[in-house]
Amino acid sequence: MLDIADRPASHDDNSAPPAGGSPIAMNVVNRWVPHNIVMRDSWFPVAHDYSVTGKPVRRAVYSNPIFLWRDNGGVVASEFHPNERVVRDKSDYTDARGRYPVMEHYGVVWIWLGNPLAADPRHLPSLPFLPPKGGLPRHMTATVRFESSAPISLENLIDLTHADFLHADVVGDERSDSETIETFYDSETVTMVRTCVNKSVAPVMKFFSGIRQPTQNVRQVIRIYLRSHCAIAYGRFSPGDDVPLFHPCTPETRDRTRMEMVMNTSNAGRMFSYVMPKAGYKVSRQDSYMTSPQSPRYMRHTDRKDLHSKFDQAGQRYRMAMMELADRQAKGDFAYRDNVSADCSDIIGLRKELFQF
Amino acid sequence: MSLDTDLWWAVARSEEVTSKKPLSVDIGDQPVVLWRDHQGIARALEDRCPHRRAPLSLGCIRDNGLIQCGYHGWSYDGETGRLKEIPNMKDQQKFPPLYKANAFGVSEQAGFVRVCLNPKAEAPLSADPKYGYIGTVNVSCSHQEYLDALYDDPALILAIRGVRFSPYIMSELHEEGGMLVMERSCQWHPLHWPSHFVAEFPLTLLTRTHPLTGETHLTLRDDAFNDLLHAVLSPVPAARGVTAVRWRAELGVRRPGLRGAMLRGVNPLTVLSSIDGSKLRTTKPTVSLHGEDLRNALLDAPQDTHDQTVAA
Lengths: 357, 312
Fold this sequence. Notes:
The complex is a heterodimer. Chain A is of the alpha+beta class. Helix content of chain A is 21%, strand content 29%. Chain A is globular. In chain B, helix 1 crosses helix 4 (287-300).
């Protein structure tokens, strides 16, 4: 069941929680400690499919070692290197041979971290703009790292007003005639829709898509799958292109994040389709400039509450939803109450005619 | 590190605080951002945006003197710390008093910008001139260790061109007007007799140190009691056990001759950016041992004996 958060902008930290009757108080949300949130029973994206070959590559989720290699074409995900002289105990997350549940989908390798018996493809996030069997050209993919916790990186993403300052040279500054933000959520996802009218045109589109107008209407959607720390960032620019981005924030450790990004620019102009995915390298460094010093300040509890504005509605909801889910998991409840694999095209407003597979 | 919140720390030289770029400094574990507003007044806030805890020092200074966080663009007034603007909120630009960053007391005198964590504390008065030779170093050494090194062997932390510090002390560390004062015998360098055979020393280095902040006034004198060099050394405890040292110096009376010429010209004072660990380890704590007792006695004494408004 998808609820709509239409909480009015408020500056009262003791105000009532948003619609939905959350048991998490706003005071707690504004003092959250994302460093302590560890999710399990979830699919985590750990590699682009082309990265996994016969030679083992190493990954980690919450410091749990993961070695990936191909055997007869299929992917093996083991917590032990094949050459390793095993002197440590097997974790509870793998089978008797020390292997994680693993699957390939959307051109990405996913491992299940949690109870191996609960691994189910039905819990894989819906990414309707990516071909289910993969196959997008490599120039639409990249691997990027953040020196911050995954929730901090995702909160950064869902608070899109930051882009007007940190990424103005890529996506344009804050000037627009109007800006509205809507937030939708269920127990497993938070989706934010930002609509800007006559926003300063994104420089990257000005230079590489040939947009001549000074402004453009923008509809940006951020959809976060809470457990797997994956996000969809989908921008519809008019005039301009449709740019859907798979933006996973895989927690390699509790304070370091890996992003195996995929940006489907197959419908954009040739030059833009090559350049825009590369912008991730620049944008991610700009984000790290803030999130890297920010993240350690969220490692320990503090009595001081973060302040917020009406633009932080989605970020507040994200914090609340994460804390609720973490609270449930702490009590031993790992069940999915909402279906994350159901096609989310309508929710994110995907122009499906552009993304037929 | 727990610090007395009423102390005034010389965390920057005046030249370092500009309206072009915010300056990040620390007082112990407390990060502080400094800048100069549109009226040229130095301002200090906690270096932490209360919105998402990003360092304000990574932001910018606006034409109206506000400091703007570089993350989401929230702008703060330096005098009160109050939030003044959130971008794209043209409909609401008045915010409740709760919406503020922590503001600190600021005082600028004699070429130093001093900050007090208590914004209501009375600023110190200083009659010191603004010395022209300047410098800043960050030393991987705790604040107290740094001062102990100064007491036991100044050569561990500084150098004066043409001058050698001897191990012989003319006046041991003692209290004088709320300050820790000592005077060390010095020689001209490099040509000199071994100091343990010397009957008369031609120079002394007088140091007057505030017992809490460690801010130290140094005076190099010759045997005719001429002040050849004045300097102010301001060590401030910073993050991760580092001591940030700002200093200013000025030549005193002109001393004729070759040795006097060695002092003149370019800046004769060097404050070292690192301490030789092997020398520090083998330097016996002598003056500093006594200094610790004296300092504790001073701190136990009634407050007015080390009133910073007079002493510093």
